[in-house]
Amino acid sequence: MASGRQRFSIISDGLPSQLPDVNPDETREWLESLDTVLKTEGRTRARYIMLRLLERAREQQVGVPGLRSTDYINTIPPEREPWFPGDEHIERRIRAYIRWNAAVMVSRGNRPQLGVGGHIATYASAASLYEVGFNHFFRGKDHGESGDQVFIQGHAAPGIYARAFLEGRLTEQHLDGFRQEISHPGGGLSSYPHPRLMPDFWEFPTVSMGLTAINSIYQARFNRYLYNRKIKDTSRSHVWAFLGDGEMGEPESLGAIGLAAREELDNLTFVVNCNLQQLDGPVRGNGKIIQELEAFFRGAGWNVIKVIWGRDWDPLLAKDVDGVLVNKMNTTPDGQFQTYTVESGAYIREHFFGDDPRLRKMVEHLSDDDIRRLSRGGHDYRKLYAAFKAAREHVGQPTVILTHTIKGWTLGPDFEARNATHQMKKLTKAELKEFRDRLYLDIPDSALEGELPPYYHPGEDSEEIEYMRERRAALGGYLPKRVVRAKPLKLPGDAVYSELKKGSGKQNVATTMAFVRLLKDLIKDDDIGARFVPIAPDEFRTFGMDSLFPTAKIYSPHGQTYEAVDRKLLLSYKESAEGQLLHEGISEAGAMGSTIAAGTAYATHGVHMIPVYIFYSMFGFQRTGDSIWAMADQMGRGFLLGATAGRTTLTGEGLQHADGHSPLLAATNPACVYYDPAWAYELAVIMQDALRRMYGSTPEHPGGEDIFYYLTVYNEPYQQPPAPADLDTEGLLKGLYKYADAPAIEGRNGDVPRAQILASGVAMRWALQAQKQLAEDWGVAADVWSATSWTELRREALACDEWNLLHPDAEQRVPYVTRRLEGQPGPVVGVSDFMRAVPDQIAGWVPQGFTSLGTDGFGFSDTRAAARRHFHVDAASITLAVLHRLARQGDVKPDVLRQAIDRYRLDRPIDEVFAGTGQTAESSTGGEA
């Protein structure tokens, strides 16, 4: 540093240099005092004084900025630990039994003739985390309340099964059916938490990494939503999310933590099991994952509790007057801590304590075995209890508990902290014996010599089993446990749907707007109106739903503390603590989190809620398909609205906004019922039936069906016809009904070429124009059918095929689509605003020759007419496709094809055909909905 110059003062928080100093003399005295401490007692003491001052300032609510990270030690010092209310000896025995049975279950499942896989090491590292919760914190549902919502780390499932076995909820036969759900007699156990596969046991699917974190946040937020709207008292419910440190690398794990802090979700606790290992190696070998996560969460506004060291480190830390031990803990990377776990006490003495004589002296009274046994905090029940209790009692912030554990803990040297632990599925006989000895279990060697190691149960009358049952009874019953208490809703009658069934007259109305009109009327219903949960990711105005702002209002736990800039407008932005709309900002993943929480409230809280999540169709299944799959697993109900649907309908937006494939993605989800309605009245019929199926009661499904609906709706306005007097409602709901008979061909006695055109969504208008062109220009009579759901037609046909396969001697079932088209004259052409694979779903069951038209390829920005000509789905292209089929079967002359191409200029460059105009007969309304 140059002589006479002072180092530039870098202030990252608070910026005091921008504030006036009202008492310079007092300020100078404080600074001189700090300088004196530095000179006389050193930086370590000065640092301690500064930290204590910050701590006291925060206690006095001075408002100083929080630290981004703290020392690599426990957040709660020994003197502040609460009294532990349980019997630690009994609880240690319980943990030993569960550890053993979890490992044995996986090991038995991987005998040579079976080999179903599984995970041993994750639960071994997390057993104490779960047991402190099960014995002292997790509240059940037996008293009629919602209880706590516990998201269990997926790879820890064997330990949860092992606990349920001791509780008497599962038998040895169940455990032997691990990962053999249909082949095991009587049914087996799912690999991970899967509610759909075990609907009375699991509540939350958690194995798609990252979804646990974001879904638990939105579950806690939805609990508050229900409470603030006075629908359900969730004030005693707490959400616990168990996560792995490697899992925190998923964007969804950290992506919504700001929401939890912003809405002060002190009903939420993350418990991150930091065993420092991912699936194949260290999480941060050269860094410190706990410190990194602490900085993330503190910066986001969370309460952070670190549980790093067990109680046997407390005396050593008490001796650390110079801070040398804390400094060593701070500077040792995770990869080295992993190595210390597998090395001898002598190695640890030399490499961890040997760098400094003060450290060596600190442990000179300890043997090498004592040093090797110095424990991690995530295995110390008292430390964990203190952390859980502090988290449960903390007010105003969500809490994250960061616990340091060892992957494979107690499983023996071949498992503990090894990089390959995740892939290790079976214990050898020698490993089983060492494992038994570590757990002090009364299992003779002879019992471990056979092919299958035995499960262990201390007996129904043992004090351990009685203790487990007493603790769970005191806390409200067993967990995990899924209970459905919701009663079917009283659904509105036909009147609410009548407006859409009347049509729009001369007014042009897009199907998106038609849906919004229906939703507004449904929300007014006295019986179910309050149960609707409209959800959108920052696009309510785009979809015309700002009309709901003044009445339904936007949910905010803090209400509206400002004057809205548009407050003088009729449709002003209006927030309220009792608001009904969930406005999720720019977060489709967050919107899905709310949708799942709302759509499963019938089981989680015993109240039916009806989520209606509306989004750009391109950004639904494509962006958050994993979350939608989790919704299916969790048996969520409700509506997903793929608005601005289709590859040619959303004019001007371009490639990443042009949806041509979401119906195919929806078709992969067995719980998803998909429709692509063309008309507003079709929407009305579908919505009424959907509410009946999901929220009503039928003999087959007295509690409603565990399905959800995906509806594609469009922003192209056009005149909506009234529902036909003889509407084929059954066919509409099955996926296909005849909409328009072929017009009479003048001058012909009925002997004309015939064809059938099947269309869905906005393609219906192109089909009707093609029907007109075929009749007037080529003398072809074509019937037009509304294919409201290609997917439902396919699923019903597949079910018929499966039945026929297994019943060759019985009368064969004929799919609905085959029965409807059988005997209809002429070839069949199917068309939609999606890629050809969408109508192709029914190709195998169409009895006539079948041609599909669709929008395969990338979307682009242009007029609707130009885009439809480019993809050859417009009326002229449909006309040509029908003529092609008729020519192939000899019903029209081949030269008609060239005439049609020339007439409609189908082989001309698009910029030539549409120069100066963006309209065609079937797309002439323009504008946006």
Q: For the CA atoms, what is the radius of gyration? A: 33 Å
The stretches of 5 or more residues where confidence is low (pLDDT under 50) are 1-12, 925-929
Calculate the terminal CA-CA distance, rounded to whole Å: 67 Å
Number of strands: 20
Write a structural description.
It is built from 33 helices and 20 strands. Strand 17, helix 27 and strand 18 (781-786) form a beta-alpha-beta unit. By secondary structure, it is of the alpha/beta class. Helix 31 (875-888) packs antiparallel against helix 32. It starts with 23 loop residues before the first helix and ends in a 16-residue tail after the last helix.
Please name the defining characteristics of this protein:
929 residues; alpha/beta; six-stranded parallel beta sheet; 33 helices; disordered N terminus; disordered C terminus
Question: What does this entry show, briefly?
Answer:
About 40% of the residues lie in helices and about 10% in strands. The protein has a six-stranded parallel beta sheet with strand order 10-7-11-12-14-13, sandwiched between helices. Strands 1-2-3-5-4 form a five-stranded parallel beta sheet, sandwiched between helices. Strands 16-18-17-19-20 form a five-stranded mixed beta sheet.
